[in-house]
Amino acid sequence: MWSVAIIGCLYNLAAGALYTVVTYYLSSDFQLSASVVGNVYSIMGAMALLGSFLAPVLTKYMRIGRAITIVCFVSLFGTIMITSFADWRMTMVGYAILSIGGVMLNIYTFTIRQKEIPNGLIGRINSVYRMILTISFPLSGLILGRLASTFGAKTAFIGTAILMGIVTLFIFISKLPAYEEQGKKACNVS
Fold it and tell me: Major facilitator superfamily (MFS) profile domain: from which residue to which, for each copy (predicted)?
């Protein structure tokens, strides 16, 4: 359970304030109008919704631990895309990928918490988990905001990519990829 909490905290630390930094980046570096930025974020919302539909589909074909591993790897790829390209459209494609992955990871970690925490402890553990995740959002704003204002938005994106790399590395060294729900066998797709 602690690995799930640490992954959620680090993921939120990496991507929690990215929305604000990307908005700043689109308006200051690319001089996009508020209506274009609004349309871009409407598309991002649709991508997050798509992630909520994809999450159960992926776990039909593999165990949830492996699905988390794949989702974090895909989120890392999206973060690297945000960092690598100078075109705002490619930045948005990367952010869309990250949005899909973030929603899927949230669904998977919530599922694990619901399955693994005994009923008598669920309130206490969920409150600690919520506190850990909630603290990471303002810290993300502090870190990414300071990086963006001091060194530019691209540096904040690089910081996000580094943190996302740490999340992915942590998943690989934890036992999470081997996690499988009790009593459920995933389909073997060969």
Answer: 1-190
pTM of the predicted protein model: 0.83
Answer for the pair 102, 48: CB distance below 8 angstroms, yes or no.
yes
Instruction: Note whether 100 and 175 are within 8 A (CB).
Output: no
How many structural domains comprise the chain?
1
> How many whole angstroms from its chain centre is CA 58?
16
Asked whether residue 25 is assigned to any structural domain, the reply reads yes
Flag whether 162 is in a domain: yes
The CATH number of residue 120's host domain is 1.20.1250.20
For residue 107, give the DSSP letter: H
Residue 189 belongs to a domain: no
Rounded to whole angstroms, the Cα distance separating 95 from 15 reads 10
Q: Write the pLDDT tens digit of every residue in 112-157.
A: 888 887 777 777 777 877 787 788 888 888 888 888 889 988 898 8
